[in-house]
Amino acid sequence: MSCGNPQSDVKDPGAETPERRTKPKNKICLKCKTEAPVIQVRHALYCRNCFIFTTSGKFLKWFLATFKTTDIYPAFYIGVSGGPSSRYLLHVLQTQLTPRKGKGNFIRPGAAEKLVVIYVNHANVVPGAQNLRKDIENMIKGYPNAEIIEVDVDSAWKDSQSSISAQLSGLPGQPPSGTTSSSTADLFDSTLATSSLESHLSLLTHHLILREARKHADGLVGKDKELPLFLATSATRVTIKLLSSMSRGRGWSLGSGEVQPESSQFGMRIYQPLLNTSSKEIAYFNKYVVPDDSKPVVNRTFSTFAPPKSSIDRLTEELVVSLERGFPSTVSTVAKTGNKISFAGEAKEGERLCTLCGWPARAKANDWKNGIAITKLDDKVESTESDQPSLADILCYGCYTNLTDSRARSEVNYALPGWTNEYAESQKLTEESMHKDTIKELLRGLKDIKVINNDPLIKKAAISGLSSKNELAVIIFEKSAFNESNFNQFDHLIDNHVMIQQNDIYHVLTSSSTPTPNDQKVTVIYPATQKHLDKHSKSEVSLFRETPEVFNTIVKPYIDGLPLKETKWISSLVSGEAENETYYYKGNSFVIAADYKWDKQDLNTLYLQVVVKDLSLKCLRDLRSSHILLLKSMREEVGNVLKTNWDLDLSQVKLAVHYQPTYYVFHVHVVSVNYTSFPGLNVGQAHLLDDIIEMLSFSGDIFEKMTLTYHLSKLHALYKLLKPDTASVNTHDDSGKLQN
């Protein structure tokens, strides 16, 4: 049908195209050229014996090219459903397990000591499906050293409590106390589309086979050695999977192993040797070779006896089968093309992985979905920055789409399978390693280096530079505070010194100490923006008196116009899930975390931040009498944190609010009273929290009405707005690229 009006009288010219049918020119077997043919494979005709020889020989050729004849594995693992493809693979694979005579007098040993069959039971989730354990036992009853591992789909949640951890808490999901049966029922909710149900079942089956194989292999060879796992995916099935996966949004990861003949995942070496064998060939081979008492059994699925449009897989299957009927090389062509697909994402060792399926994932699946999805105008909702981490941040687009099926629900309300936490932890380590490598590469290749600040009083300097990608970087150097324990070895503190001045009893020397642990702290901001460059550059400072009128006409529009991505890291911080933050308190209204400027060792430089979760509360001007309870609660919890962690009290810290602040989400600075060189407590910037509470108790809207005095650097964006006659300079945009 055309993509135009389905009610139109204009016929689709493609609908009248007759089906192409190929007729073989000869009526004898292509191989022996004597017997009458019984089957046509693409454009070739085979008799029964030649067909069996050719089909089994195709597998043997692949096997000998993949495995060395001298290698003997402790076990071969094979995922079996009981269907035709897995029955065929069982038969041809077991032939490689028994010693047999080869050319000459050489007897080739078996390639594996045992065959481990893994069967995932779908009977408890698919209506009408049967447990095929007995049928599979009949299939392998004559095989030497074969065993069966049966696992139910429910077991995907047997570790579900561990999956709700720091990595995944805060996501919409079922509490850890949910039972495996309730988790299964929720995941296979009948309100979900059949396509989503099929995708869920396929994903769970794949991972259960992987995990059961790995668990068994650990007992044989330990955790560091890969063993072969065979999956019976035929050429017809991989063609359907290739096309349906792309329609589901899984095109990003197809080149990583889903449709490849060989790949690695979860410590197993996965082989799919039937990718060049069609379902038709497999069906005829089973008919001619497999004994009647161990024939394959086709179990029910979600789309059994359903019309083609019931699901994406079912519709794709109908398309592929009909094309193959008229164009016999369709399946082989698509399957071979799929084998050549390579992953075009990030470097393999640094790729981002989906925590559900384990395959490479494109970042920000939700943004990608919103960019390509077709939605009704009246269904569109203005996007807002959430203070909770999104499922889209940890899932690939395909998994995210299936879990948020638009026909059923807008968010996930069930527990994720147990392995998601393991993948999330692994992903965290991978990303941390990537960040370290990125910074090392940046520091080695930094160019156009400029000293933008050097303050000898506080022993702090800053430089700027450009990376190889011409992205801005700002690097801050600070001398570390003295560690009092070092003075216990005074003779090592001054290994060499030079007298530079002497006056009466005063002697001034320059010296170097050995060793010098933590001699300086280096903070790298990359990629940086013009705002970061301005903040850390030395410049002239001016004092401003901001009246309510100036705030409403100049300052407030400036604050409201700041891009949301400038506070993106704050959303991560207040969610309680920022990876590299040290939290001391997580509440419903605010969090308390260590500031990155504090080394978390010297209490004389203690520096914490208390940040509210209400992102609409931006600065001092927004405070009203209704916020007094919040401010008092913040002060109280700071006291509890000080007492619990360091046996300090509120008299030993200063609690202050900056105006103008560095970022516009209301926060309170907690700084040790002994940190006298801290520049953020100067008059003209800091307002003590106790004074703020007192002022609000006298007048609830005092900060809306009063004139506030503060100082600004000449490089601050507000400076240019408050003094519009200032000269323009070269700047960097939000991505760090140089602008003129």
From TrEMBL:
It is found in: Cytoplasm. Gene3D superfamilies: HIT-like, HUPs, Scavenger mRNA decapping enzyme, N-terminal domain. Pathway: tRNA modification; 5-methoxycarbonylmethyl-2-thiouridine-tRNA biosynthesis. The keyword Cytoplasm applies. One of its GO terms (biological process) is tRNA wobble uridine modification. Keywords: Cytoplasm, tRNA processing. Residues 1-21, 165-185 are annotated as: Disordered. SUPFAM superfamilies: HIT-like, mRNA decapping enzyme DcpS N-terminal domain. One of its GO terms (molecular function) is RNA 7-methylguanosine cap binding. GO terms for cellular component: nucleus; P-body. Residues 167-185 have a biased composition (Low complexity). Residues 9-21 have a biased composition (Basic and acidic residues). Pfam families: CTU2, DcpS, DcpS_C. Belongs to the CTU2/NCS2 family. Belongs to the HIT family. Plays a central role in 2-thiolation of mcm(5)S(2)U at tRNA wobble positions of tRNA(Lys), tRNA(Glu) and tRNA(Gln). May act by forming a heterodimer with NCS6 that ligates sulfur from thiocarboxylated URM1 onto the uridine of tRNAs at wobble position. Prior mcm(5) tRNA modification by the elongator complex is required for 2-thiolation. May also be involved in protein urmylation. PANTHER family: HISTIDINE TRIAD HIT PROTEIN MEMBER, M7GPPPX DIPHOSPHATASE. This is Cytoplasmic tRNA 2-thiolation protein 2. It comes from Wallemia mellicola. The gene is NCS2.
